[in-house]
Design a protein that fits this description.
heterodimer; A: alpha/beta; six-stranded mixed beta sheet; 22 helices; 38% helix; globular; B: alpha/beta; eight-stranded mixed beta sheet; 8 strands; binds thiamine diphosphate; binds iron/sulfur cluster
Chain lengths: 632, 312
């Protein structure tokens, strides 16, 4: 197959520098004008264990990791050990080579470092046969040898990049620039020598493959970053200056980025004793007048359930991030899944009012985190940004101008002292913090902040009267409950008017639809394009507002198609369930394509899933589940 | 008008300012020790010169948690065991606030035990009052972490097999820099200790013995008590860790033998508070963070100018 794209996979032991090498590779390709997207796979181990990263590069924006890959750089796992021979299969150090056979496309290139491997062992894994069968171009090179000649063994990564460049016929200019930018002195010189030597050595080989690296050129300055970067930057730009957390994969990423940068921005970061404390601190900071955030993943978020309810009841704004990984319980710490949706929507007791956004990509991570803060502080309600391990780890380029937005430090519906003087007070002198009917006709009673003169009130998780005192009076209860819940309608109207978070893709008049949320959106959009090229009539809707749910938008769209396939990474069709619950119908129109094996969808799988669903055929792939529409 | 003009206001403070007018009606039982804490706290406020608008009181859940229904300041009645983490952050957000936290022995030594240890360890500049009535009051008389060994209750009908927690020793080990025990029956000492605790720069832990006549009828009303500072029997240096530890050991042992020892148990003035430590290493701004949101001249940097370079 001739490809007008490069999907380059670098594999090795974790700890071998796979991550940083792939990041540099992606950045160099971006500098050369291409659009890039990385996909990271790693095991739940600290050092050792097989890991890989893919970099996909095209001349048009890249939406997903794509299907398989066409160039492998296998470095050999230098951290491999065989503590219990029987507990493992095969030779650990060979794994980066043979474990990657499955997805390498026909006609692909397989460059491996023979420096660490015995020829006999390589014979045993059946490389030759597999290569013949798939028409692979196998290139063994002593990358370690080249690295050692000029410097140290770890520079084999640089040697691998040099050889890759020669084999793919791409210039080394951008790689040189990166080395010069990141290193100095002897290190810089040694790496440049390794790069060149490997390039020379590989140029002399005669490899006749069909991979064509496209040429691209950006018309705007680009940046390359991850979803976690974008969430953190969105928070900072929206005036967040307080973060509290406790580490848990993959939430740790946002927590780390925020902790590293907040002090530079005059903010405060707190690593605390557990997640209950983490959420409670965010509440305390917010109560005292600061824009605050916390977050976690599955189990840690479970601990935040009670403080989350307290935020609702006391109408204290906070933003929580939930970074999903596969569950239940500690599940699969380094694998993505979209199975915490119901957890974030319904956790905590009582009739709850909260806002939940599920950004679909890095661009939306930034904008929707900003929305979450704006809504939380204007409407005095907790807002949750839910994303998954996939967006957390992938890097993607987008125009720098996307971040060229004004900061917003407005603490929302907090009064100034002058305004407090004019506001309603109880005869006891207490500020009427929780008025049943706020003066502006909205459902938001303005707040005061401790230390402001005459703003005294009591915030309590018990039901309370307008001045904040505990009250079980039935009429007061109804008035307060309605006001809190009615905010969701106001927020829906606000979002509809100011910020649509939903994304439409494909021909408007298509017969079939695919409904998707979160990180699988880009992959679905790519599949939709292929399906239309294959002669189907399909469009897609990516939904990002989980609560309040965009009922009108989704209903209209569902009305416009004959049937819809709902694609999500979980086993129980949580988003389809939510849609049905919110809309009260369409159960007979929606079927589900589900995947929950720890890996995100690939576009080809969605194409297969869609085709077999409309043909009424069984899925070819066993790694997915199809659930028909009700009544089918 | 400044954004937080209640803070640092210099004037005569009357303790009645801390009574929240006509509402609400007290729901504590007659004879409850919690009234003693309320009274001592109100009396301490004029001494330390704090007005109601600059005080932020954080409570947990329990009878004790209702303290801020009867105390007129900024209040946050949080959830069971969690007053401390909420309070801590408020202090970091605005170090000029006078932050006080309060809760029961179940609240602070049981469900919130982890937070109690860590708040002491970090030495946040705040005061924490634990209403120690050796029982769960609000949920109707179950055994608490300070109930004596062998204590019978509906949930431990055979008598508790657990030894009680030793909060003073625990907090000394955790890192609290002011530790005292007082009792509701001893209003003058209680007022003085609360005032001192508020003025202390660091984490002040007060184990406040409060009787629960409704559910803990067997328990002493903590009389007669001995003030260790007034008694000739106990001569120890409150700033000496080892002597304080020994005094606390005695205090905690004798309570269950029927002798109530109260007073200052440990006072350490040298150790900087957590906020000071954080500022010293550049992890906290010099000016109170909360003020920036009300300062029209504040400059809000953005990531585009500061962080994006690295991603280009
Ligand atoms: C998470 C949670 N668990 C249990 C309760 C029920 N509860 C309320 S108060 C309380 C115990 C109160 O005892 P203590 O802290 O000693 O305070 P007291 O009522 O004696 O002042 C319990 C168990 C709760 N509110 N929240
Ligand atoms: S139950 Fe006990 S602690 Fe609670 S109010 Fe009554 S006497 Fe006080």
């Amino acid at each position: 197959m001739t490809d007008n794209e490069l999907i380059w996979r670098i594999a090795g032991g974790s700890g071998d520098g796979i991550d940083s090498t792939s990041q540099n590779f992606a950045k160099a390709l971006m500098w050369s004008g291409l659009n890039v997207f990385t996909h990271r796979h790693y095991p739940s181990r600290i050092r050792g264990g097989h890991t890989y990263v893919e970099v996909r590069a095209k001349d048009e924006p890249v939406q997903s990791r794509g299907d398989g890959y066409n160039f492998l750089l296998a470095l050999g796992d230098s951290f491999a050990r065989n503590p219990q021979e029987e507990a493992y299969y095969g030779k650990e150090e060979l794994k980066p080579l043979y474990e990657n056979f499955d997805d390498l496309r026909e006609g692909g290139v397989l460059l491996y470092d023979e420096g660490l491997l015995d020829d006999e062992d390589v014979d045993e894994i059946g490389l030759e046969e597999a290569a013949e069968e798939n028409d692979w171009h196998v290139v063994p090179m002593d990358l370690r040898g080249i690295a050692k000649e000029h410097g140290r063994e770890i520079m084999r990564n640089t040697a691998g990049i040099g050889a890759t460049a020669a084999i793919l016929d791409i210039s080394t200019d951008e790689f040189e620039k990166l080395i010069k930018q990141n290193m100095s002195g002897d290190m810089q010189e040694a790496n440049l020598n390794v790069l060149h030597d490997a390039y020379e050595a590989a140029s002399e080989l005669d490899i006749d493959h069909d991979i064509e690296v496209p040429e691209g050129s950006h018309d705007e300055e680009q940046v390359i970053l991850s979803g976690s970067n974008a969430i953190s930057y969105g928070a900072i730009d929206e005036g967040c200056r307080f973060i509290s957390g406790y580490p848990m994969t993959p939430w740790t990423d946002v927590f780390t980025i925020m902790s590293q940068h907040l002090p530079e921005f005059g903010g405060i970061s707190e690593q605390v004793e557990d997640e209950i404390a983490a959420a409670a601190l965010a509440l305390g900071a917010s109560h005292a007048g600061v824009k605050a955030m916390s977050g976690s993943s599955g189990g840690g978020f479970a601990l935040m359930s009670e403080p989350l309810g307290l935020a609702e009841m006391t109408e204290t704004p906070i933003v929580l991030v939930e970074a999903m990984r596969a569950g239940p319980s500690t599940g699969m710490p380094t694998k993505p899944e979209q199975a915490d949706l119901e957890h974030v929507l319904y956790t905590s007791q009582g009739d709850s009012a909260r806002v939940v956004f599920a950004p679909a990509n890095i661009r939306e991570c930034y904008t929707q985190t900003r929305s979450a803060f704006r809504i939380a502080y204007e409407y005095q309600i907790p807002a949750i940004v839910i994303y998954d391990q996939k967006i957390q780890g992938e890097l993607r380029n987008l125009p720098a101008s996307h971040f060229d937005e004004e900061p917003n430090a407005d603490p929302g519906s907090v009064l100034t002292e002058a305004e407090i003087q004019d506001a309603a007070h109880h005869s006891s002198g207490k500020f009427q913090r929780f008025l049943h009917e706020p003066e502006d006709g909205s459902n938001v009673s303005p707040r005061s902040v401790p230390g402001q003169k005459d703003g005294r009130f009591l915030a309590t998780g018990n039901e309370h009267n307008p001045s904040g005192h505990i009250s079980e009076d039935p009429e007061n209860r109804i008035a307060q409950m309605n006001r809190r819940l009615n905010k969701l309608d106001d927020i829906r109207a606000d979002l509809d008017e100011n910020t649509s978070h939903q994304t439409y893709h494909g021909p408007e008049d298509a017969d079939h639809g695919i409904l998707v949320w979160g990180s699988q959106q880009g992959t679905v959009f790519e599949a939709v394009d292929r399906l239309n090229e294959n002669g189907h009539s399909v469009k897609a809707l990516g939904v990002s507002d989980m609560a309040p749910y965009p009922k009108e938008e989704v209903s209209e769209w569902l009305e416009s198609v004959d049937e819809a396939l709902v694609v999500e990474m979980n086993a129980t069709a949580q988003f389809r369930g939510l849609t049905q619950k919110e809309l009260g119908k369409y159960g007979d129109k929606m079927s589900s394509l589900l995947k929950y094996n720890g890996n995100p969808f690939e576009p080809a799988e969605i194409v297969d899933g869609f085709e077999s669903s409309i043909d009424g055929e069984e899925l070819a792939a066993s790694n997915m589940k199809y659930v028909p529409a009700a009544g089918d | 008008m400044s954004a937080f003009s209640a803070i640092g206001e210099e004037r005569e403070i009357d303790r009645d300012e801390f009574t929240p007018g006509i509402e609400p009606q007290a729901t504590w039982c007659p004879g409850c020790g919690d009234f003693g804490v309320l009274k001592a706290l109100k009396q301490a406020m004029p001494e330390v010169g704090k007005n109601p608008d600059e005080v932020a009181l954080f409570t947990g859940i329990g009878c004790s948690g209702k303290l801020n229904s009867y105390f007129n300041s900024y209040g946050f009645h949080t959830i069971h065991g969690r007053s401390l983490p909420v309070a801590r952050a408020a202090k970091l957000a605005n170090p000029n606030l006078e932050v006080i936290a309060a809760g029961g022995d179940g609240d602070g030594y049981g469900i919130g035990g982890n937070h109690t240890i860590h708040t002491a360890r970090e030495n946040h500049d705040m005061t924490y009052i634990v209403f120690n009535n050796e029982i769960f009051g609000l949920t109707k008389g179950q055994t608490s972490p300070t109930s004596p060994k062998g204590h019978k209750s509906k949930t431990q009908p055979h008598g508790s097999a657990k030894s009680p927690i030793r909060p003073l020793s625990q907090q000394l080990n955790a890192g609290a820099t002011y530790i005292a025990r007082t009792a509701a029956v001893n209003p003058n000492q209680a007022k003085e200790i609360i005032a001192e605790a508020i003025e202390h720069d660091g984490f002040a832990h007060i184990d406040f013995l409060t009787q629960c006549p409704t559910w803990n009828k067997d328990a002493k009303h903590y009389v007669p008590y001995t003030d260790v500072q007034q008694s000739d029997e106990f001569d120890f240096d409150v700033s000496d860790r080892a002597e304080a530890a020994e005094m606390m050991r005695k205090t905690e042992e004798r309570l269950y033998e029927g002798e109530v020892l109260t007073g200052r148990m440990y006072v350490e003035d040298e150790r900087p508070s957590y906020g000071q430590e954080k500022r010293a290493i550049g992890e906290m701004p010099e000016e109170p963070l909360a003020e920036r949101y009300f300062d029209e001249d504040a400059e809000w940097e953005r990531t585009y100018d500061n962080l994006l370079e690295h991603h280009k």
